[in-house]
């Protein structure tokens, strides 16, 4: 029933309590708030306002007429009057938000809920103040606008999606990276951007997202609109409602394809060097190089070794090419115009044949190439350190094409590794042959020989033997104890054991390595091979042998070990060696409870430097940064390059505060760095994460993960800063 002046009525159940008691309006406006409000119109169209007590109370009603429509501001009044003027059977309930001014002149929002009266001649209205609601909505819109503006400028890939994987937001970088417009992305499942074989992995990670585990870091393949696959690392942050229900996930991604590629190449390089140090056969080492290249390329590869005497190329490694093809080109003569490899070996220049079917170099071999299913062949000469040609590295493709920049980088790495492998193997083979020859003439040569006549207890040493140790012949007393006096203390027991076993056994020869003291104080590594002469009763009567100076060989082995543990661009320890140093420091902390800290460093916007200045500019920046880093290190510190633009520093004896101070000093020095490259000056910035090593840390991975979290925070908070973890 409509409410008439002077009559009471139950309050409308749609309206909550209105504004506080301080909200007072003047005449012809809404009267003091704090109670429920109800409006009605009488038969003459006169608007009245009655102040009613809230539901379920016995407070008395105090009626009073009020022409309240003038309280609504002019901009909202016309629309409201139009709503209120509706008549007839078509009238339906409606809701309208309006602004009024209170007694202090401040704007306030009210919401009117209208229902047609039973007789159709009036409206029953309930009023609720919604000023706070409107303020929150405005702040939310402003916050969302700011969020979209800030995220839209990020170079990282940012998106948000619902629990059912539906994308609700994507920034410009995300759209550009995947090659879709925002309209094409919003509303689709982000799983359509993930290769099918990665779905199980991604689903498994998403299923672990809950209130106890709201943040996750993952890395997997994605596929772009053009079909290209890229590695992306994602940092996912779950968003929950007040009841703990997952409502949305924000994901921030970073393209790690190049980093993965560099890490893969570093692993290949280390594996090759490790096999060389271990003495693996050349064919096995070269096949590792070929297989490593083929993992990054769609092509098939071969390495041919050049026999300089015959001027022919022989197959050294080609595991993916048909055996019939390898057999046909084995022993290929070199010369200009003889295929890709024959020409490259003869000219010493790269030969790129993009289409075998039309290139004149391949005219005699077209049928063979067709049978092997190859349509393009690029060949790079493999050079020794002195510049002469050792062989060729060839890449075959099943359709015509030429190399791009990444192909050329991979080829350069492969030929460099193949050069090291071939040279090292040839040097080892030459040394082996030399040592075999030496063993045949050892008794008659004067090159480092010695002789001990047991019957007379007389010992002789050749001039070369003395020369190896820096002495003039006969400078020291000559007897059988001399070599024992000169041998390194750490080698004495082992060498004596070998000598005794040979002397008292049935063998007539022995071989042992040890160190002899040089006149200037250093030790000379030697290979001593001895021969024992026995009488008819098998008793030793004479022992003779020769010492070979192993200094150069040991130097080469040490160099190979260093290459396997050192980053060739910066000269810093690589990831494997740094992890070993970190493990040793962790073991020391567990024993002695001494402080130590680790820093993770990442050059800011390094990809942009590479894009603008090329990899030559990027390499110049890395070398210059390394010089600044070395200048700040103490002799006890250890810095390593973990890959790409990422570095780590171990600072023994420092707590987190001291390490952070060191990091801030390093950051300032890097910020002042200007790298000159091709008439341009490149500015360098670095973000640093610091963490304390704890005695209960399980392994280096956990320590670096903690430092990496701080580094990510430094990146997220604006870069060029230091953060602790």
TrEMBL record:
Record SMART domains: GAF, GGDEF, PAC, PAS
Endpoints of the signal sequence: none
Superkingdom classification of source: Bacteria
Residue ranges annotated for the GGDEF domain, each copy included: 594-725
Classification via Pfam families: GAF_2, GGDEF, PAS, PAS_3
Region of interest (Disordered), residue spans: 1-23
Lineage per the UniProt record: Bacteria, Pseudomonadati, Pseudomonadota, Gammaproteobacteria, Chromatiales
Residues annotated as domain PAS: 143-213, 434-506
Organism: Marichromatium gracile (Chromatium gracile)
InterPro entries assigned to the protein according to its UniProt record, in alphabetical order: Biofilm_reg_signaling, GAF, GAF-like_dom_sf, GGDEF_dom, Nucleotide_cyclase, PAC, PAS, PAS-assoc_C
Annotated PAC domain residues: 216-268, 510-562
Protein's recorded name: PAS domain S-box-containing protein/diguanylate cyclase (GGDEF)-like protein
């Amino acid at each position: 029933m409509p409410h008439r002046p002077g009559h009471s009525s139950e309050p409308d159940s749609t309206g909550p309590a209105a504004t506080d008691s301080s909200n007072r309006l003047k005449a012809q406006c809404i009267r003091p708030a704090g109670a429920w409000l109800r409006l009605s119109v009488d038969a003459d169209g006169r608007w009245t306002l009655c102040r009613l007590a809230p539901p379920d109370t016995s407070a008395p009603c105090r009626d009073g007429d009020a022409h309240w429509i003038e309280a609504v501001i002019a901009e909202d009044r016309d629309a409201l009057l139009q709503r209120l003027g509706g008549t007839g059977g078509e009238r339906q309930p409606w809701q309208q938000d309006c602004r009024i001014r209170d007694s202090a002149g401040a704007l306030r929002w009210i919401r009117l809920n209208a229902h047609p009266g039973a007789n159709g001649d009036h409206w029953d209205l309930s009023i609720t103040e919604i000023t706070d609601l409107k303020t929150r909505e405005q702040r939310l819109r402003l916050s969302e606008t700011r969020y979209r503006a800030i995220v839209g400028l990020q170079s990282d890939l940012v998106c948000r999606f619902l629990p059912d994987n539906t994308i609700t937001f994507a920034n410009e970088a995300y759209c550009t990276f995947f090659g879709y417009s925002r309209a094409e992305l919003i509303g689709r499942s982000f799983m359509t951007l993930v290769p099918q074989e990665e779905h199980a992995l991604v689903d498994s990670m998403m299923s672990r997202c809950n209130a106890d585990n709201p943040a996750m870091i993952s890395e997997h393949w994605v596929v772009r609109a053009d079909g290209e696959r890229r590695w992306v690392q994602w940092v996912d942050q779950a968003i929950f409602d007040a009841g703990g229900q997952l409502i949305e996930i924000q994901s921030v991604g970073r393209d790690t394809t190049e980093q993965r590629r560099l890490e893969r190449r570093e692993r290949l390089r280390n594996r090759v060097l490790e096999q060389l140090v271990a003495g693996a056969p050349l064919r096995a080492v070269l096949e590792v190089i070929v297989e490593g290249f083929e993992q990054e390329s769609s092509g098939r590869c071969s390495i041919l070794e050049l026999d300089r005497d015959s001027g022919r190329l022989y197959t050294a490694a080609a595991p993916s090419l048909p055996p019939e093809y390898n057999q046909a080109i084995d022993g290929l003569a070199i010369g200009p115009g003889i295929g890709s490899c024959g020409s490259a070996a003869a000219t010493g220049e790269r030969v790129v044949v993009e289409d075998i079917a039309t290139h004149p170099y391949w005219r005699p071999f077209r049928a063979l190439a067709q049978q092997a299913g190859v349509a393009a062949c690029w060949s790079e000469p493999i050079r020794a350190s002195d510049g002469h040609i050792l062989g060729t590295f060839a890449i075959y493709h099943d359709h015509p094409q030429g190399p791009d920049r990444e192909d050329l980088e991979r080829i350069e790495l492969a030929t460099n590794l193949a050069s090291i492998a071939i040279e090292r193997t040839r040097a080892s083979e030459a040394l082996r042959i030399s040592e075999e020859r030496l063993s045949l003439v050892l008794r008659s040569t004067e090159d480092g020989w010695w002789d001990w006549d047991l019957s007379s207890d007389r010992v002789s040493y050749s001039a070369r033997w003395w020369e190896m140790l820096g002495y003039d012949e006969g400078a020291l007393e000559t007897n059988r104890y001399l070599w024992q006096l000169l041998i390194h203390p750490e080698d004495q027991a082992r060498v004596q054991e070998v000598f005794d076993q040979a002397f008292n056994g049935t063998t007539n020869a022995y071989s042992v390595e040890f160190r002899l003291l040089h006149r200037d104080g250093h030790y000379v590594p030697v290979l001593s091979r001895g021969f024992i002469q026995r009488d008819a009763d098998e008793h030793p009567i004479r022992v003779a042998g020769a010492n070979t100076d192993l200094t150069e060989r040991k130097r080469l082995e040490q160099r190979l070990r260093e290459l396997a543990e050192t980053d060739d661009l910066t000269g810093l320890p690589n990831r494997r060696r740094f992890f070993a140093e970190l493990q040793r420091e962790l073991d020391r902390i567990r024993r002695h409870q001494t402080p130590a800290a680790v820093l993770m460093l990442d050059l800011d916007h390094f990809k942009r430097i590479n894009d603008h200045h090329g990899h030559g500019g990027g390499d110049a920046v890395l070398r210059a940064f390394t010089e600044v880093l070395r200048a700040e290190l103490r002799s006890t510190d250890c810095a390593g390059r973990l890959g790409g633009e990422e570095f780590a520093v171990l600072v023994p004896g420092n707590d987190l505060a001291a390490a952070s101070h060191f990091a801030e000093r390093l950051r300032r020095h890097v910020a002042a760095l200007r790298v000159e490259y091709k008439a341009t000056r490149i500015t360098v910035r670095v973000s640093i994460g610091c963490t304390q090593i704890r005695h209960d840390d399980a392994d280096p991975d956990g320590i670096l993960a903690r430092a990496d979290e701080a580094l990510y925070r430094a990146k997220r908070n604006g870069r060029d800063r230091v953060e602790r973890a």
